């Protein structure tokens, strides 16, 4: 080492103290979501509600009525909107229920983690070997 070089040694705490999180904060974490799955599901539900009557009327006129008349384009579009909205609503429901289970599991993991301590093991150079440079660790011989 030259005269002007300064050897820097860093240290880490021997244990990491836990952070207390209140039940209110955990409940806020459960209900705070960045995705818009619930909004998409509500939109799909609105599509179902809005298109169920015209779609049923179109199906009734085409297949059940005594006077058979061809299905018009508006009836066909209402059936397509009803089907797409039902599929979208089902997918959003499945995704949202899975996310609720994931959030519940994560909250339980946080609650169980509060009693654990994390310990750091400090490593000192062996046999006066120099500290690793350029972010790479040198292979050590097993003694």
Put the structure in a nutshell.
The protein is mainly alpha-helical. Helix content is 55%, strand content 3%.
Would you mind describing this structure in some detail?
- The chain has 143 residues and is mostly helical.
- The protein has a domain at 38-119.
- Helix content is 55%, strand content 3%.
- It is built from 3 helices and 2 strands.
- It has helices at 23-31, 37-64, 73-113, and strands at 15-16, 118-119.
- Strands 1-2 form a two-stranded antiparallel sheet.
- The protein starts with 14 loop residues before the first strand and ends in a 24-residue tail after the last strand.
Structural class: mainly alpha
List the strand order in the largest sheet: 1-2
Distance between the amino and carboxyl termini: 27 Å
Cα shape: elongated
List keywords for this structure.
143 residues, two-stranded antiparallel ribbon, mainly alpha, 2 strands
Topology:
Blueprint: E1 15-16, H1 23-31, H2 37-64, H3 73-113, E2 118-119
Antiparallel strand pairs: 1-2
Helix pairs in contact: 2-3
């Amino acid at each position: 080492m030259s005269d002007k070089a300064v050897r820097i040694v860093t240290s880490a705490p021997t244990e990491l103290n836990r952070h207390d999180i209140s039940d209110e904060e955990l409940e806020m974490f459960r209900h705070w979501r960045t995705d818009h799955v619930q909004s998409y599901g509500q939109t799909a539900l609105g599509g179902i509600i809005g298109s169920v009557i015209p779609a049923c009327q179109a199906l009734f006129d085409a297949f059940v009525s005594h006077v058979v008349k061809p299905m018009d384009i508006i009836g066909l579009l209402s059936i397509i909107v009803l089907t797409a909205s039902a599929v979208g609503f089902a997918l959003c429901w499945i995704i949202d229920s899975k996310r609720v289970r994931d959030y519940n599991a994560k909250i339980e993991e946080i609650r169980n983690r509060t009693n654990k301590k994390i310990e750091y093991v400090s490593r000192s150079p062996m046999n006066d070997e120099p500290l690793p440079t350029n972010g790479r660790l040198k292979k050590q011989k097993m003694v």
